[in-house]
Structure formats: C-alpha cells, structure tokens
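User: Hi! I'm working on a homework problem where we have to compare a predicted structure to a textbook description. Could you give me the structure for the chain below?
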Amino acid sequence: MPHIPSHYLTEGPRVGIRPFRPDDSAEFTARTRESRELHRPWLFPPDTDEAYAAYARRLNEDPTKAGFLVCEKDDGGSVAGYININNIVRGVFQCGALGYGAFAHSAGRGLMREALGLVVDHAFGPLGLHRLEINAQPGNAASLALARSCGFRLEGFSPAMLHIDGAWRDHERWALTTEMRARAPRQD
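Assistant: Happy to help. Predicted structure tokens:
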C-alpha cells in the first residue's frame, strides 16, 4: 500500500500539529467564542475573521514566531487548541516563549499535553531551539499543570510582567532546555 503523506508537521496518537491556514478562520473563531468562559481572564485569542487573519499572518510570516494548530486526528482534524512559540531569539540564546490554549470542547482530555510534547520536539529538532519558556499567571491552574506535566521547571516569579486584560499581571516563569528534555522520562 503506498504511503500517504500526512498534512501535519508531526503527529502523535491522538493529535497532529500544523501551521495556521487562512481557511481555518471560521472554525478557529467559532471555537474561540465557544470557549470564552474557559479562556477568561487568561487568554484573548482572535474571535473575528479580521483578527484571525492578522494573527495567522503574523504567526506564519514573522521569523520570531511559529504557530501551530492542535488538531484531533479521530475527529476529522477538528481544531482542539493552539500552541505558539513567540519571541524567538536566535544567536547564542536559541530560545522561544510558549503560549497556548485549549478550546472548551477538548479541554481536560490530555490533547494539549500530547500536542505540547510534539511542539517541544519540533522546537528542539527542526527549529533548532535550545530553551523554551512558559510564563503563566499564578491563578491559571490548568496552564501551570500543563507546564509541570511536560517537564518544565519553575524558575521564578515576575511581578507585573505582562499587560493582560487592562492590567499588569504577575507570572510564574517555567522553562525547559534540550538537556532537561533528554534527561526526563517521556510521558507520552
């Protein structure tokens, strides 16, 4: 039987990750609106076609960013969430900052954990990064649990770090390096 290439950059047992596409706008923005209660006050992903187009364009064209849609393989490729690598710095740093969000219909099912592992592998492999960071608000239990479960270590606390929802918010700083990843047992 001939091999049919996957449309995912990489995939696990339940999810695949791929870049944002213009034709994902309707599904992405609908999922964002459905997930507003889950996301607030932590996340504000685009919820209109215009906002999505600008967001996807930045992720696809800016060399300091990489965006990935998390798609459920058993559900016809429906979008379960997203993971972005922002503020990619090359040179001697080789680092990026992760941001992510699950959509309400897929939250709590372990799909983002699987997907974050795929993104980390992609970042440390083809993207050639050495370090990934996650900055999460202390009250965002789901985000902190995801960072912890994927082997990130708490490195510190940053008061008034990011301006979100009209105020400067404190964040916990979590990080993972290629060396830490090599030593950690895989939990996929």
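For your comparison, note the following. The domain at 10-183 is CATH 3.40.630.30 (Aminopeptidase). Residues 20 and 45 are 13 Å apart (CA to CA). Good luck with the assignment!
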